[in-house]
Amino acid sequence: MLVIYFTMTRSPMLTLIISIIFLISSSSICNAGSPAVFILGDSLLDVGTNNFILKAIGKAKFPHYGIDFFNSTPSGRFSNGLNVADFIARVVFGDSVTSPPAYLSLFYGGKYSEKRLAKAIDDFIPRRRWRAPNGLNPVSLVTQENPAVGINFASSGTAILDINSAVDQALALSEQVSQVIFVHGNLTATIGAWRTQLLFAKSPFFLGVGNNDVHFFALFRAKLDPDKYIDSLVQTYNNTLTSLYNIGVRKFGIVSVPYIGCSPLMRVTILGGNCSKTANDLAQQLNDKLEQLLWDMMHYLKGMIYSFGNTYDILVDLYENPQRYNIKNVRDACCGLGRFHAMTNCHPLAVLCKNRDEYLFWDVSHPSQYAARIMVETVAFGNMTHARPINWSKLASL
C-alpha cells in the first residue's frame, strides 16, 4: 500500500511526479497490458486544456457544450457529451472511464494544486476498478466522472505545424511533446530510468492532429503547392513521432484526418453548400503519406508498433450511409445558428437540436458523442479496413 504525505516544502514538480508514480505502484507494469494512456492532439481530443490557456480562441466551457456530460456540465470538450479521447480511454481501460485529465488541469494559479492532486491519487484505485451499475448501458453517463489513468495533452486548435497552431493561440504540438518530455525526465529522476522506460513502452500514446492544417489550407492557403505543403506536414509529423520514440514510447495509436470537407464549417464557405473537395482530397493525400511514414518507421525503429485509425473512410460511410447508423442529419450542426447551423459556434443562444444521437455533427466541425463513439469503436474493434496493421484494442493489449 502506497502512503503519500504532502508537505509545504515539497516542490510542485515532485507533487506531480508522486501522482504519476501511483500509475505503477499498485501493481506490476510487467503484468499490465497498458498501465496508462497518453493523448496528444487537437479539439477532437481536448478535454479541457484550452480552459487553462488564457489566449486560446477555441474553448468549450459554456452551455450547450456538455449538455449530455456528467450533470450537464461543460467540461471543455467540443461535444454534447463524451468525445474521441473518452472513447479511446474506454478501449484501453473499459467502459467505466473517461479520458485521463488534461495536463494543465494539474495547475492552479500557475502552480500545482496539491489538494487536487491528492484527491486524484486517492481516487486512482477505485477509478481503475469501478464498474457501471448493473443495467446501465455501457456508454450511459453517470453522475460522477471517472478519469482513466494517464495524461491528456490535447488542445483545441493544435495543428501539425506550429505556425498553424498559432492561428487559434492553441498549445503547439511541439509544446505538447515538450510537456511529455518534461514528465518523462522528472519521472526518471524520481523513480528511475528502468521503471519510467517500462511505463512509457507499455502505455499507448494516441495522436490525433492534422485537421487544422487541412482546414487552414482549404480556407486560406489554396494557392500553396499542396505537395510541398503535405511534405512539410509529414516531415514535422516524423519529427514528432521520433521525439516520442527517443524517450521510450513504443505503442502509437494514430487518428487519421477525417473526411472533414463535408463538415458544416467547410460547407458553409462554399456558395452551393457542397463539400470541400480541396479539404477532402488534401486529407486523403496526407493520410496516405502518414500511413506510409508509419510503416517505414516501424521497420527501422526497433520495437515500434502502431495502429493507424482510418477515421476518414469511417466518416465517409457515416456521411453517405447514415441510415445504417440511425443518423438522420448529416448536413447541419446540432448546435449553432444560421446556414447549416454553422454561422456561429455552439453557445447559450444557439439553436439546439433535440435528438442529438440523430446528428452526425455536434457543432460546426466536431462529431456528436454518438458519432464519436461509432468512429472510435470501429477503429478499435474493426478489421484492416478500419485500422492497420492492427486495431486499437490489440494495440492496447500488447
Automatic annotation (TrEMBL):
<comment type="similarity">
    <text>Belongs to the 'GDSL' lipolytic enzyme family.</text>
</comment>
<dbReference type="InterPro" id="IPR001087">
    <property type="entry name" value="GDSL"/>
</dbReference>
<dbReference type="InterPro" id="IPR035669">
    <property type="entry name" value="SGNH_plant_lipase-like"/>
</dbReference>
<keyword id="KW-0378">Hydrolase</keyword>
<dbReference type="GO" id="GO:0016788">
    <property type="term" value="F:hydrolase activity, acting on ester bonds"/>
</dbReference>
<dbReference type="Pfam" id="PF00657">
    <property type="entry name" value="Lipase_GDSL"/>
</dbReference>
<dbReference type="InterPro" id="IPR036514">
    <property type="entry name" value="SGNH_hydro_sf"/>
</dbReference>
<dbReference type="InterPro" id="IPR051058">
    <property type="entry name" value="GDSL_Est/Lipase"/>
</dbReference>
<keyword id="KW-0443">Lipid metabolism</keyword>
<dbReference type="GO" id="GO:0016042">
    <property type="term" value="P:lipid catabolic process"/>
</dbReference>
<protein>
    <recommendedName>
        <fullName>GDSL esterase/lipase</fullName>
    </recommendedName>
</protein>
<keyword id="KW-0442">Lipid degradation</keyword>
